[in-house]
Structure formats: C-alpha cells, structure tokens
Design brief:
Layout: E1 2-10, H1 13-18, E2 24-30, E3 36-42, H2 52-73, H3 78-111, H4 126-131, E4 137-142, E5 147-152, E6 156-161, E7 164-167, E8 192-196, E9 206-211, H5 213-216, H6 222-239, H7 241-258, E10 264-272
Antiparallel strand pairs: 1-10, 2-3, 3-4, 4-5, 5-8, 6-7, 6-9, 9-10
Length: 293
C-alpha cells in the first residue's frame, strides 16, 4: 500500500486585508512502521488572544508528542492500545493533552517575559495567560487496523473513499461564533474522542482529511463541503498526490476568498494500492479547485 501525507495552512482573505497573520497550525508524523499522526489547530485570533498563533503551534506539537509516546509505549500491540484508547481516550488522554498544553504555554509566556496578572489572593492568574493563546485542536492517529480521533472545538475530520464519505468523529455543534478552547479551565471535559476499526486497505483508494473550520464554513451547506472532500480524493486519483499538494495553497486561498475569508488548513493522508502507479502530474495545472457554494 502506498501512502502520501501532506497539508498546508493559508492566510484567510479577510486576514490578508486586515494584516492579521494566519492563526492555524498543523503537524504530521509518519512512524517507521507507517503509522500516521496528524494534528490541526486553529488559534482564535481575537484581540483577547494576541498569541493564539503560538497557542496553535504548541497544540499540534503537544498532540503529536502525547500520542507518539503512547503509541511507542505499546510496542506495536495495537489491540491493547485500541482497548486503552476506547477506555481512556476521553479522560486520561484528553487530560494529558490539556495539562501538557497549559504547561508549555506557561513556559513560553515566561520565556518571552510577558506580564502575568495576579488574583486577589496574590497568586498568578494562570487562566488569563492561557486565554491569550486560545486555540482549538484536531488530532488523528491512523494505524493498520484502527483510527483514534480527538477534537476540541470546531473543525472537521473526514474519511473519504470510493463508496462515499464518513465523518470520523461528529463534532459538537455550537451556535454562533463561540467554540470550545484549550484555554478554558478543565478544557479536557469538552474534548470529543473516538476509536473506529478502519482498515484502509479494504477500500483503496482512500483519504483522511483534517481541516480547520474556515474550510467547511466557506461552503453553503454540509453536503457541498462533503462533496468537495470527495472531489479532492478524485483529483488525487486522477492527477496524483504531488500535483494536488502543489496546487493546494492556491486552491485553499481561492476557497477562502470566495467563502468566509477565514484562515484555512487542510491536512491529508492518502492511501492507494501499490499496483496502481503514481499518476503523472503533467495535467494538474488544468484541474480546477472545487467550486464554493
């Protein structure tokens, strides 16, 4: 089985106009045995969160670090790992990610000698520090026999294959512009996790995607968003992963410009049979970005 992992963050059209840097971050890790760890984070970018770009960078590093250490600790015993993630994913794992993010945020804040306000009792107001780095977080562990998904806040984790599209995890829908955040007290309580037995070799070619909410919000409906994810899979099948990777920045920028104007990050793990040769990217420039609704 052949696999390709790639992604890109682009500055949203509205952020370009306002001179605001892209608040999204992503990270990918491919282990020696082919296991894949992916993470996407979307910094809030509001006036009360001036360092949310750093917050999102720290978030993706934390997820990949926590999950990689856990994976290595089970020394390839996937069934035991699956059982543990089923039992402890929404508690211990979520708590570990929450605690490690807050620990690294304080280290970063103090390293840059940024001010820390005090509470009435004289103690450091830690929550006011965390708020300045506010971010959401998506994460995915893809093994040979199952996937583990993590979500805190908005964004989407999808699994596309020749038979259609499935949401790997169903995020909690919050009305308005509010979203859950790692910066909140006991943020782990709002995390959603899920373990699913998915063997990608059973439905090749196939693709997992993680995307910040700027992507889905640029389409009129959920159906149009899902159709677009499937279109990306079709384009990789037709033009090759390298061609789509090369075109991804311009496609995402156009999607933002025609859509909600927010930053967009998309991270893709694509799987195909070794029997199918890698498609030549020569015609890739002629392919069009999926239309926004």
């Amino acid at each position: 089985m052949r696999q390709n992992v790639f992604g890109r963050s682009v500055q949203g059209a509205s952020h370009i106009r306002s001179g605001t840097e892209c608040q999204d971050s992503y990270k990918k890790k491919v282990c020696d045995d082919g296991t894949i760890i992916l993470s996407v984070a979307d910094g809030h970018g509001s006036k009360s969160c001036p360092f949310s770009k750093q917050g999102s960078k720290i978030a993706v590093n934390v997820f990949c670090s926590v999950i990689e250490n856990l994976y290595e600790g089970y020394a390839g015993n996937l069934e035991q790992l699956l059982t543990y993630l089923n039992r402890e994913g929404d508690t211990r794992i979520s708590k570990a990610i929450d605690a490690e993010w807050k620990k690294r945020i304080m280290e970063c804040h103090k390293k840059h000698k940024r001010e820390i306000s005090s509470l009435e009792n004289g103690e450091e107001d830690l929550m006011s520090v965390y708020k300045q780095y506010g971010t959401t977080l998506l994460g995915l562990l893809i093994t040979k026999t199952f996937v583990f998904a993590f979500q805190l806040g908005d964004g989407d984790i999808c699994y596309a294959h020749e038979d259609g599209l499935e949401m790997v995890i169903e995020p909690e829908k919050i009305l308005g512009i509010e979203t859950h955040s790692l910066s909140r007290e006991n943020a782990w309580e709002k995390a959603i996790t899920g373990v699913r037995r998915i063997n990608v070799e059973d439905s090749l070619p196939a693709m997992f995607s993680l995307s910040s909410d700027g992507f889905a919000n640029s389409y009129k409906s959920e159906d149009e968003f899902h159709t677009t994810i499937i279109d990306y899979l079709k384009m990789i099948n037709e033009h090759g992963a390298k061609a789509v990777e090369d075109n991804l920045p311009s496609w995402l920028s156009e999607t933002s410009s025609m859509g909600c104007g927010d930053d967009i990050t998309m991270l893709i793990a694509y799987f195909a049979s070794d029997a199918i040769p890698e498609t030549s990217p020569e015609t890739a420039e002629e392919s069009e970005v999926p239309e926004n609704g």
